[in-house]
């Protein structure tokens, strides 16, 4: 089975009147999805554009509802968690997670952080047990693959490059991915956007090509697995 949960988080649209304003990260992500569809079937496709339609930030009341036992929650508390429950259900169903994100101020957009805060939730995607000593948090989900697609205005964010210490985007995604049940993670990054020179064009072409190739590989792998199951 291949259920894909696709989260876009740029505040920019895929297409704009000025092409220079088009979201790079969203366009690369959609190239990935289109390439997958051409190479193989998607059993279920779940899409959310949290950049355009962001989930609300969590509040004190939200936290109070989370830490109230389910059988003791008031109707108001249950309503507080309706969206969170929906987003978690989408995550649980997914085999593959595609997250596209720009780098804003060296980290992820607030809208994407808001999505993570709604889905990384105690007793839903992780549990907490002090008997584990200094590592009490344990993910409850597993077996998922994350394709993280990012666009950066500058360049050199991976160690040992010149801006590695300023990169708070991919390291954050890698850390949080554990609580999405991710066991395999792929990264596709386009750089040099603010320079708008040949380096940017080369990086962009490479990102599109990587998205296409990776989608074909993963779709092909899924078809092989499904074929093996049918013939077993």
From TrEMBL:
Binding site for FMN: 10, 23-25
Cofactor section: FMN
Co-factor note (free text): Binds 1 FMN per subunit.
Keyword annotations: Flavoprotein, FMN, NAD, Oxidoreductase
Any matching Pfam family: Flavodoxin_2
Top-level taxon in the UniProt lineage: Bacteria
EC id: 1.6.5.-, 1.7.1.17
Enzyme class: oxidoreductase
Catalytic activity field: 2 a quinone + NADH + H(+) = 2 a 1,4-benzosemiquinone + NAD(+); N,N-dimethyl-1,4-phenylenediamine + anthranilate + 2 NAD(+) = 2-(4-dimethylaminophenyl)diazenylbenzoate + 2 NADH + 2 H(+)
Assembly and interaction partners: Homodimer.
Task of the protein: Quinone reductase that provides resistance to thiol-specific stress caused by electrophilic quinones. Also exhibits azoreductase activity. Catalyzes the reductive cleavage of the azo bond in aromatic azo compounds to the corresponding amines.
Record-stated family: Belongs to the azoreductase type 1 family.
UniProt protein name: FMN dependent NADH:quinone oxidoreductase
